[in-house]
## 1
Amino acid sequence: MKPKMIWANLAVSDLERTTRFYTKLGFKSNGASKELTSFFVGKADFVIHFFLKSVLATNLKIEIANAREVAEVVFTFSAESKTQVDSWAQEVEEAGGHIVSRPEEFGEGYYGFLFADPDGHRFNVFYMEGL
């Protein structure tokens, strides 16, 4: 299998809140509608669509997990330095995100933290020496 593209679809309860949160973090909008808000992430412009939970459940014909209770996926954002990791932690808090684990070293040459967006979707921010 060789897909032409890949993107993520995540469920949210409030499109305006989600748009404000990711805009405050500096992500570039990929558009919005009554059903979703979408952003480009990273240098490769990976797309994450944030659909209203009811819309995503209906379209996929599946039950959508409560992201505050379980992790359906954890995306990792690569940082360029420990200083940038610390700065991003502050930006996440100021934007209304929840820091799950504060920035810390874990293993030799690894530094990062875990946060959740307002709907509970988890993201790992990670700096690795030499990466």
## 2
Amino acid sequence: MKQSIGAKPLSFPTPAWVVGTYDMNGKPNAMTVAWGGICCSNPPCISVSLRKATYSYAGIMENKAFTVNIPSEAYVKETDYFGIASGKEEDKFEATCLTPVRSELVPAPYVAEFPVVLECKLLHSLEIGLHTLFVGEIMDIKAEEAVLDEKGNPDIEKVRPVVYGTGNRSYYGIGCNLGKAFSIGKKP
């Protein structure tokens, strides 16, 4: 028998994505998001939800673009750090020793070391409450050759993406716990 646990922001699986933006001065910034998913197949679109208080929110509004970077398990600490630190106060790329790359298609950076990146043009923004839902049209997906299958698509077992467990606030890989969220990334 099921037990009611109340209305909560909980779903499985929940991604651990890193959204790339430029700030108002053109400085690359990135933040970890868990509220997101594919929202349309034609045109191909993805959605992410950010709080207005985040530094990345202003970057998306200013540039009308963002990237969605899919980290592999090897970058779980950096992924957590991107969600703990504020780009307003520090350079997250410098702190993590990761490389920002300027997209050729949209005014937003992506993380060179992450195996898959989606370059998105902002189509819609919708204030829902505490979060604003951003819908981005996927202009291109870039993937490392090493993670592609025989048909040229990213293979989840090769990408080894990070997912977020909302109930226990931990990160997981494909079948294993990678560490405690908001803890493992305190030191990049």
## 3
Amino acid sequence: MSTQSNISRRMSQSAVIQAIASFGPVSRASVAKITGLSKQTVSEIVGNLENEGWVREVGQTEGHIGRRAVVYEIAPSAASIASVDLGGTKVRVALCDLTGRVLAERVEPTEPTGGMDVVAQIARLVQAAASDAVGGVEKLHTAVVGVPGVPDPASGAILLAPNIAGIDQIDLAGALRDMLGVEVFVENDVNLAALGEHWLGSRGEGEDLVFISVGTGIGAGIVMGGQLLRGHSGAAGEIGFLPFGADPFEPESLSTGALERVAATEAIVGQYRALKGRELDVPGVFDAAADGDQAAIETLDAVARQIARAIAAMVAIVDPSVVVIGGSIGARTELLDRVRGCVAQCYPRPVTVEKSTLGDHAALAGGASIALSHLHISLFAEGQSGARIAVPPPAIADFKAGAS
């Protein structure tokens, strides 16, 4: 078969799969109309996909005069993908089918020794989750790992991730690929959370979104025109290093970041201690503020102002349609309400600021969307340059129920 014929076949197959994934259950005739391909071409492709187990019959059309047509959908159990959220305190793994539905989930405290021990832990959890699902490990095709740092494309090391020891000294994707025997992709966890909110959070396909996570640290993921903005070195959204809050020229700001020093966990604990003269953890500070403790109230007010400054800076640069705030601290309503008020005071136009709809499963959802896209392109576009197959998300309630 000529190169041109191969390209044409891959393009046709990609179009058919996209139509079935987006509109299924759907008949061959409808697929032909959607794709513009001939009925004969569609019949041949669908027949091959059905024989190989990638699509399945799910009934017949109804309500039409004359002969009813068989309708098809993606076969959910034909393959599975793993989405991994690697944090400084927990590792969370979700195994999903071809529709994005969560089949199994495993969660453990992150291995404190870090490095290759964390890689082995991830591999073990992925294999355990896969074993819980129909088809087992043999069905596993692709894994995506969200990391609290910046993946270095040259070495595979994870930079700017001080909470996981030794992760900056290893090729994480390569090592995990060797252990699992499947394709592995690594992405910043906040970037994945942004994609997850965009994919599952009832956003329009082309909607621009900024996701800001506030927890142990502070970071942002930027989705423009439906696509993740990574930047030249993959560090787009590292807003903890915005040069305000603390003095950006102090040596400490080169490791933690001037904004992060005044707007994340350590900042809340430290500011309250400085005002009150006693130690409380972050939940304790929120509880104290709710009880009317003036030092706690001032602490949360100060943090909200700094987060609002970051939002104003992001909005001034990329002008998103919505800013979504998540993370263990950012998702707290007490802080979110303060942030909204501060944004209105420091930016001249209305800014839509919403709470994360996915909570601690946002990064898992984003990882699933990337893994499914890679899987579909690999299988059905056969690596075709520039190919893109958008996988429709499952219902958010179904995803969260399956991942609970």
